[in-house]
Amino acid sequence: xxxxxxNSKIPxxxxxxxxxxxxxxxxxxxxxxxxxxxIPIDKQFPIAEKxxxxxxxxxxxxxxxxxxxxxxxxxxxxxxxxxxxMSIHNDEDDVVDPWNVSTKSESGLDYDKLIKRFxxxxxxxxxxxxxxxxxxxxxxxxLRRGIFFSHRDLHSIxxxxxxxxxxxxxxxxxxxxxxxxxxxxxxxxxxKWLQDVFNVPLIIQLTDDEKAMWRDIKVEEARKMxxxxxxxxxxxxxxxxxxxxxxxxxxxxxxxxxxxxxxxxQKCVTFNQVKGIFGFGDSDVxxxxxxxxxxxxxxFSTTFPxxxxxxxxxxxxxxxxxxxxxxxxSRDVAARLKLPKxxxxxxxxxPALQGAQHKMSASDPNASIFLNDxxxxxxxxxxxYAFSGGQATVEEHRxxxxxxxxxxxxxxxxxxxEDDDKLAAIxxxxxxxxxxTGELKKIAIxxxxxxxxxxxxxxxxxxxxxMQEFFKIRKINV
Length: 478
Known about the structure:
The protein has 478 residues and is α/β, with parallel strands linked by helices. It has 3 domains: 2-86, no CATH class; 107-352, HUPs (Rossmann fold), CATH 3.40.50.620; 355-459, Orthogonal Bundle (Tyrosyl-Transfer RNA Synthetase), CATH 1.10.240.10. Helix content is 49%, strand content 11%. The protein contains 21 helices and 13 strands. It is globular and about 65 Å long.
């Protein structure tokens, strides 16, 4: 994030006593710089900590001092506005950050509000049409139904592909359980489709170091979960010739370029910024403070010279919207690293069985459908726990119909039932009262169960040797 200070309009005259001498001194030093004054963030916060001792304030003429005051006032105002745009901000209704997702609304998060809060762009029909035109493929139902709903610079990625130029995909997973649940699969299912239609390299990061720092688990346990989750991810069906998977605890020490880019990123972000962006406090372990640079580094192709050589290749990051703060930071530092900003495409969350106020979570086995659940477990969980949008009695339901905005079985069908016409017919039947809750749950069970069974067949074939093929440091198809 760079501020073009020279092109800023100066506000009305301000009193000299608004600023102390150290702040004026800093501004004097900045203004006397002969280069174009694109001021990076590390000069912004806090002003008093970045004092320049080169200029004696007493020697500054009164008129010049007044000008400096005006300019510094506006400079700080702009800087504060920029930090607000980068920072995690949760309102009283919706909480969305990398560690917490919840809402008070039974229908789920207000994603249009999230777009405004995060400053991203909505994926509209025009962009979906361009997607289909440049790929020659029908848009994935996740796109058509707004499950992937928001983006940053997706137009640029599509234009690159249209021009015959390459980019790569980067996504990841913070391993938190031995088995992943179906909510974890949404970004990976879509990423596989992207890899197939664009025929581009894919990098998948497993942040076992993050989980070791954020949760009360040993490093060894975090590594074990990462390897187990890697097998879960491989079973989605990724191309081994075009996919590199790594876990941080094993890989970073083997790749000097990765660590070097981490340090470059760390130099661009101050402690105050990282506290503002991620909400870290004084009691957080120091590993948390530096972790954002670890998740940011793979968004730059220079982190992987064994794959890309010395080529600078743009990156597209498919991820859930809660991961956006990491990549807002990545995009901010990109210009200072003289690298392209990573583009992003954001997904919504698969809700918990008990209702759309929370996303599905591995920490609550009764709120989640896991990828290793049996057909009987899937049936029991949906029948017993899936929140219903139906009415209290059959008679009332026949009269008023069901509410698909809050019904979890229907919400799951929007994710996993690919047939648009069938989904529309189910919606109409349920909302009219013709279809009862039990019938809707039965359709959800019959839709989800075979998907998981087919997945489990693929998962059984992912051995340690297969996993190592994806983990091997090697050149993949670029």
